[in-house]
Amino acid sequence: MKKLEIKELSDNFFESIGKEWMLVTAGTKEKFNTMTASWGGIGWLWNKPVAFVFIRPERYTYEFIEKNESLTLSFLGEENKKIHAICGSKSGRNIDKVEETGLKPVFTEQGNILFEQSRLTLECKKLYADGIKPECFLDKESLEKWYGGVHGGFHKIYIVEIKNIYSR
């Protein structure tokens, strides 16, 4: 993996996040978890390059994000949709996702986790987190569509500073 500067980042993140998806990974070399996500974005906030992701508290990865100051966002490419399918539908509480998917973890100098299969990984530091609140919805249709019924609890949004970018 080679390091890129923020100005070298040329992905269309509407496609990368919304269509290709990403793995959100947090933890330590000894114990970590990863999950598939397709909600988030990339931008500029507080004079820093940032990403934002949404994680439901029911997800096992949520525990790892809460306990650690950093996380990674890894983009595996369309050719790895099977990995995303497993990481998005099975819990790390019940299976070893690395073993199940063939993911090959690589650890950064800071001890964060990316994967050999990643075409692009953003190594990020948490800056801000807050829960989505039902009373703050201006569009009640989205509230009903995404939080009514069987979907689960309200997401927590994490705004994270992009500290390092790795590309293969």
From TrEMBL:
Pfam families: Flavin_Reduct
InterPro entries: Flavin_Rdtase-like_dom, Flavoredoxin, Split_barrel_FMN-bd
Record domain Flavin reductase like: where: 19-165
An example Gene Ontology molecular-function term: FMN binding
SUPFAM superfamilies given in the database record: FMN-binding split barrel
Protein family according to the UniProt entry: Belongs to the flavoredoxin family.
Protein name: Flavin reductase like domain-containing protein
Taxonomic lineage from the root: Bacteria, Pseudomonadati, Bacteroidota, Bacteroidia, Bacteroidales
